[in-house]
Write a structure and sequence with these properties.
This protein has nine helices and 17 strands. A hairpin with a 2-residue loop joins strand 8 and strand 9. It has two domains: 145 residues, no CATH class; 185 residues, Rossmann fold (3-Layer(aba) Sandwich). It starts with a helix and ends in a 5-residue tail after the last helix. The protein has a seven-stranded mixed sheet, with helices on both faces. The protein has a five-stranded mixed β-barrel with strand order 8-9-15-12-11, surrounded by four helices. The protein is 26% helix and 31% strand. This is Serine kinase. InterPro entries: P-loop_NTPase (IPR027417).
Length: 340
């Protein structure tokens, strides 16, 4: 059922005459995004624009990002029963080769061919793309892609502390993860992400900057970072839960491509004056990463969980009781060493 829909959709896309493409690279891996309008690339390409490469590459992944409203050869909604999808995922329709993610809004669909490494990102109209999708473009497709090798998207931030490497800043929404990353970025440290990052096991565990956009709640922006209000990309979007910032545009010199992972920091907002970092265990680290990652990315959870567990077991892990003062947190992060 999914295979037939995928092949039919890909055939119609291949018949279109107005397809352009752009090449990207993350680490040693390259991918190509094919698109049928400049507007859809503008909507979904800004979060990954820092990965752009201009030379011709032998790409490992191909994504077809299509605005269905402007296609000559129409692709219609699948006939699948929406009730079979929970959080966009249907175990009944998931196969070893073909994966499908179908959000409840029904205004977009993502499909992936594990054999050919081809992803389809189909949108009814550009105007219907949710604001949050633009901050982690093609997240579901990237996740399916990494199932075949030792890399994983994880719900985490990452800040480069020194030349030696970076720390993952983990935790559920509201734990202080994004605020900590933005505060440390403004404190002079390198930025690799505040919401989703790409990790990969090479000689050691590495973290790569996959997205350069940050999301922050309105109250935090206005109270702690009022000077950034002028950079908000979606300030006119009524009902938006968080404001979006293009950190690659605001802080281009602070963007880092990759770093060795030195450890995992789990922040907690305590509104105290002190900033205290103390050792914790693997279970705490796993619980700070796995639940939300596996909820957002439901395909092949066993594979993803094993990668997250291997990362957490092998890394030094710490709780970070945050001070209410950003400068104190920055000093604590700067002075922190693995043996302390």
């Amino acid at each position: 059922m999914v295979q037939a829909y995928f092949e039919k959709a890909l055939s119609k896309i291949s018949s279109e005459e107005n397809i352009s493409h752009k090449n990207y690279k993350i680490g040693k891996r390259s991918f190509r995004v094919n698109y049928n309008s400049d507007n859809i690339l503008k909507a979904l390409g800004s979060s990954i624009s820092h990965l752009t490469v201009f030379q011709t590459l032998d790409f490992n992944l191909e994504i077809f990002c299509m605005d269905l409203s402007v296609m000559k050869h129409k692709i219609y909604k699948p006939s699948w029963v929406l009730d079979s999808f929970v959080n966009g995922y249907s175990k009944k329709l998931d196969t070893k080769r073909f994966r499908v993610f179908y959000p409840s809004e029904m205004n977009r669909i993502y499909l992936f061919d594990q054999k050919l490494n081809i992803g389809l990102a189909l949108y009814n109209k550009i105007e219907q793309i949710p604001w949050w999708e633009k901050t982690f473009s093609f997240r579901y497709i990237f996740h399916c892609w990494t199932l075949g090798f030792n890399a994983q998207l994880i719900h985490s931030g990452a800040i480069k502390q020194s030349k030696k490497g970076a720390y993952l800043i983990t935790g559920a929404s509201g734990s202080g993860k994004s605020t900590s990353c933005l505060s440390l970025l403004r404190g002079g440290f390198g930025y690799l992400g505040d919401d989703y990052v790409w990790i990969e096991k090479e000689k050691s565990w590495m973290v790569y900057c996959l997205y350069q956009t940050a999301k922050i709640v309105k109250s935090t922006l206005y109270d702690r970072f009022p000077d950034l209000k002028k950079y908000v990309l979606n300030k006119n979007l009524i009902g938006s839960e968080k404001y979006v910032l293009d950190l690659g545009f605001i802080y281009p010199k602070k963007m880092c491509k990759k770093a060795k992972i030195l450890g995992i920091l789990i922040p907690q907002i305590n509104h105290s004056e002190e900033s205290i970092i103390s050792k914790t265990n693997s279970q705490s680290a796993i619980l700070s990463i796995a639940p939300t990652t596996l909820y957002h990315l439901p395909h092949s959870r066993e594979i993803a969980y094993k990668k997250i567990m291997n990362l957490c077991v092998s890394m030094p892990k710490y709780h970070w009781n945050l001070s209410q003062y950003d400068e104190i947190n920055s000093k604590a992060f700067s002075k922190f060493k693995l043996n302390e």
